[in-house]
Amino acid sequence: MRAHLFTFQAFAFLFSVYSAPVLDTLPDALLNGTGHTVGYGELKEEWRGEVIHLSWAPRAFLLKNFMTDEECDHIIALAEPHMIKSMVVDNDTGGSVPSEVRTSSGTSLAKGHDDIIRRIEKRVAQVTMIPVGHQEGLQILHYQDGQKYEAHYDFFHDAVNAAPEQGGQRVVTVLMYLTTVEEGGETVFPNADKKVSGDKWSDCAKKGMAVKATRGDALMFYSLKPDGSNDPSSLHSSCPTTQGNKWSATKWIHVSPVMPQNKKAELQPGECGDSHEQCAEWAYFGECEKNPGFMASSCKKSCKLCEKLSS
Ligand SMILES: O=C(O)CCC(=O)C(=O)O
């Protein structure tokens, strides 16, 4: 497989060239849910790693050393006590159903779960150039003893999940590898415009363009084409993990903000807290300083005003 190396800055430039039609059709993608534009600079670049271009069909990039060992261990430790057999989306109802298509176990973590998760979410926003508000929570998967995830698309086939009020269609996926797999466990794209070959790949991986699960790396690929239509070349699967353990964490990013806008949180009378569910995210993006009037009345907890008010 031919790979091209980029620094993140070069990649950002390329992305702006290749993805211009997507952004033209997605003006909401530039809003963070507060009416403020989230520019590249505003996300305060922190990750400057190596980006390896994998293919254009699907549009896929490998982000080397995207996460630290501590971050990988932290996610596994949070997820491990809650792992259950994985479910898949039922195309007719939009609900979750158990399936032999995905034999791994999994769980999910709420967005903004803690400081470490927020830092990772911010990094995902930086590399995708789409604000955190467009991300779903983290999905964590664990595969062992030949467990796999058969070929599927990340874009939705049903109108329920792709509803505009839920953020619309998924546009891009960032799949983070939390462990290095000894044998198998590759993510493979059987409809890609190229195939891997050679002894280091499993037979399953050789069916298409594949990526080895390597701790700390992240695979970023697009489910939609630049014109916004579903990309059939984004079909992908997780090959059976035949030796070792595979832990992965997936971020799905939508064309519009996922969180319900202006959703009120329940506060007891006299309680000092946040009265919007988005307060933590707004605070993270600096709204306590940029928009102090609104934030001091609606997001006291996230702006750390409760301590001051009680003293
Ligand atoms: O774990 C993998 O390699 C694939 C995961 C996946 O396909 C997904 O989360 O949609």
Automatic annotation (TrEMBL):
It catalyses: L-prolyl-[collagen] + 2-oxoglutarate + O2 = trans-4-hydroxy-L-prolyl-[collagen] + succinate + CO2. Its EC number is 1.14.11.2. Residues 272-306 form the ShKT domain. The lineage of its organism: Eukaryota, Viridiplantae, Chlorophyta, core chlorophytes, Chlorophyceae. It is a single-pass type II membrane protein. GO terms for molecular function: iron ion binding; L-ascorbic acid binding; procollagen-proline 4-dioxygenase activity. SMART domains: P4Hc, ShKT. Residues 1-19 form the signal peptide. Belongs to the P4HA family. One of its GO terms (cellular component) is endoplasmic reticulum membrane. Pfam families: 2OG-FeII_Oxy_3 (PF13640), ShK (PF01549). Transmembrane segments: none annotated. Residues 134-255 form the Fe2OG dioxygenase domain. This is procollagen-proline 4-dioxygenase. It is found in: Endoplasmic reticulum membrane. InterPro entries: Oxoglu/Fe-dep_dioxygenase_dom (IPR005123), P4HA-like (IPR045054), Pro_4_hyd_alph (IPR006620), Pro_4_hyd_alph_FE2OG_OXY (IPR044862), ShKT_dom (IPR003582). Keywords: Dioxygenase, Glycoprotein, Iron, Membrane, Metal-binding, Oxidoreductase, Signal, Signal-anchor, Transmembrane, Transmembrane helix. Its cofactor is L-ascorbate.
